[in-house]
Amino acid sequence: MANAADEDPKRSHAIAPAAAKPGLTGVGTALAPPIFAPLLSRLFNWSRSGIGPRLLVAVLLFSSAVTLMLTALQLYLDYDREVGLIETRLDEIGRSTTGSLGESLWNLDQNQLRLQLDGILRLPDIRAAEVREIADRPNPIRLAVGESSPRSVVTRDYPLTYSVQGTAREIGVLHVEATLTDVYQHLFNRALVILVSQAAKTFLVSLFIIYMFHLLVTRHLVTIAEFVSKYSLARPPPPLRLERRPPHHADELDKVVGAFNAMCANLERAYGELREANERLERDLTIRRRAEEDARASEQRFRDYAETASDWFWETGPDHRFTYISDRAGAFGMDSAALIGKRRTDAAFGRDAEPEKWRAHMATLDRHESFRKFEYRGRDAAGRMHHFSVNGQPIFAADGRFMGYRGSATDLTAQHETEERLRQAQKMDAIGQLTGGVAHDFNNVLTVITGTIEIIQEGLADKPEFAAIAQLIDDAAARGAEITSQLLTFARRQPLEPREIDVNALVVETAKLLKPILGEHIEIETKLADDAWSAMADPSQLSSAIVNLAVNARDAMPGGGKLLLETANRELDDTSGDGEVVRGAFVMVAVSDTGHGIPADIRARVFEPFFTTKGVGRGTGLGLSMVYGFAKQTGGTVAIESEEGVGTVMRVFLPRSKGEAPARATPVQPLVRARGQETILVVEDDPLVQGYVIAQLGSLGYRTLVASDGASALALVDQGAKFDLLFTDIIMPGGMNGRELADAVRLRRPGLRVLFTSGYTDNAIVHEGHLDPGVALLRKPYRKSELSEKIREVLAGKPPA
């Protein structure tokens, strides 16, 4: 039967234990992390504390590995033996039952077949048995007993034959299944017994090993380590001895102890030799002192340099002529070779302008005294001006003879330029502060003058001689307002209303205005970039800046010439002339002329207020100052390029707008004196301006309430005064400006209309040079028509222009 099974492997197969017991694998996987992971972690941490624990861990790991391997081998052998027994039993079933089953099947005796199958099922490990008839007739016999299972079984299929007239004929098949469940359970129990017993034995043996190792080795290693760590050559301890029973023969620890004791003896002997060597060195102290004096003398020169260390070094002889200049001077543009043999006075610039300082310096040199921070000016090899600061000390020979000077020099050019820029900035800030104060009071006066002169002009319409005088007064007031505006623009305190503008269109419109201003002897040309970006700027201020530049260009071409207006896109990443860093995308507006140019010595001063090269009465010197202040306040800069006899190019750089649709200039509509019937709360501290405003508003039909400061205005509001518009000055006494007053009133009456007025806004409604969004401002001085139009705009709820 075994041979039959071998010949037909499809008829017999066994399921492997792993496949037959998937539940065991799942249990092991589920228990491994919570049981073994913390144990392994603790063992690992403990094993790092010393040799003994690491040895114990190593023994346990090795023993566990060997135990697992032997257990696996034993289980495999047991499994093979148990499976062999089952297969032998199946072979016996095939030999003993197929004949009788075949005869019963031939006789179609199903009761006998079932009795025989039940007998097979009662055999050990047999799970199921089945007889299937092979016949062509309908409903062939098929009997099965037991519970068939596709897992953990060994199966056999035996042919059932019957001899008919001496010929064996196959009439059916006997199918038998034997279970391996008991085998797996037996193997599992045996594995647990082996692993537990081996683990206990391994752990006990390992503990014994580690105890013996500690007793025989590690405690003595600790004693040796403590001896070495506390050993001192100054007070050597007695030789090292271990506390243990002496062995019959020297072992490894005895050899280590002997080596340490020998090493300590050698160290003590070497230490004694070192003390003797130190004593010999002390006897040679005199020789060493002489060597130190020689070294000090050779280092004296370098010490002199160190005491006067700066950017470069120099030496002079007894006649004060340079004999040496270090190469470092070349980094500042100085020609060292050209200065050798010259005196400092020969290389100085403008020495005659400061004769007393130089006489005192030469007297110091003649007295052979040291000096520090003597400053003077000089030119480098390229002719550029530098500021120098020099330090020096005299040199004397051993016999007291004067040998010259040694010292250092520092280039202070950058520091002087920075200080000059700081002084300039402080000066500009002081002018700005002064301008603000003057503008506030002066614009109040101009407001009254311009408003009053309008009334006088209306009354003198039939008297031409007096009307002409009134017009002169009006022109003078307008000129004063223009000068005040230019001062505020230069000081960057003019409230700008920047918006996206088409620079090309604005330049074209301004060029039309320039023709009657410049005269027929000036030819005006434009060169506009087709792809010019839109710029973010105040269009009225930009137009005024172009006009100012054009007028300056006209004055530089008294005999006629050409004026070129140009636009272009520029990317800047540079430092402007006043030290500010200018980076980003800009739209350039350039005004070029063919005039006499600007001299180099005054080119740096052209933007200063009131600086002019024209004669008395031919200009205020504020035109270029206004251009400079406008460009800086807008976020751009101004650059000058000029050559005497050739001409000048003034370039204004304006920041590029982030939008896509620039606003084009719209024609200015004539102002109409719009009337109304609303009530207006007027807050003005200047009595003259207050009276003028009340009179003008009354003539326009408005009712007015009046307050001289913020506190009085709030008192009227708290008393329940009814009004439609708050018309307030910005700069007022009493600790509350117009913006603070407006905020306080709006807290009490949300949605109230507010119109501000001022000749100098400070930072109340202007930040970074730009008027705050949504703020309506009427600048002083203003005329009656401007007042009426602005009031109607605010009352109608129109956004500020």
From TrEMBL:
Residue stretches spanning the membrane: 55-77, 191-213
Response regulatory domain residues: 679-795
CDD domains: HisKA, REC_hyHK_blue-like
EC class: transferase
Residues in Histidine kinase domain copies: 437-658
Assigned keywords, A-Z: Coiled coil, Membrane, Phosphoprotein, Transmembrane, Transmembrane helix
PTM-bearing positions, type 4-aspartylphosphate: 729
EC number: 2.7.13.3
A Gene Ontology molecular function term of the record: phosphorelay sensor kinase activity
Signal peptide as annotated in the record: none
Residue ranges of every copy of the PAC domain listed in the record: 372-424
Catalytically driven reaction(s): ATP + protein L-histidine = ADP + protein N-phospho-L-histidine
Entries under InterPro entries matching the protein: CheY-like_superfamily, HATPase_C_sf, HATPase_dom, His_kinase_dom, HisK_dim/P_dom, HisK_dim/P_sf, PAS, PAS-assoc_C
PROSITE patterns, per database record: HIS_KIN, PAC, RESPONSE_REGULATORY
Coiled coil segments of this chain: 264-308
PANTHER family, sorted: HISTIDINE KINASE (PTHR43065:SF49), SENSOR HISTIDINE KINASE (PTHR43065)
Protein name: histidine kinase
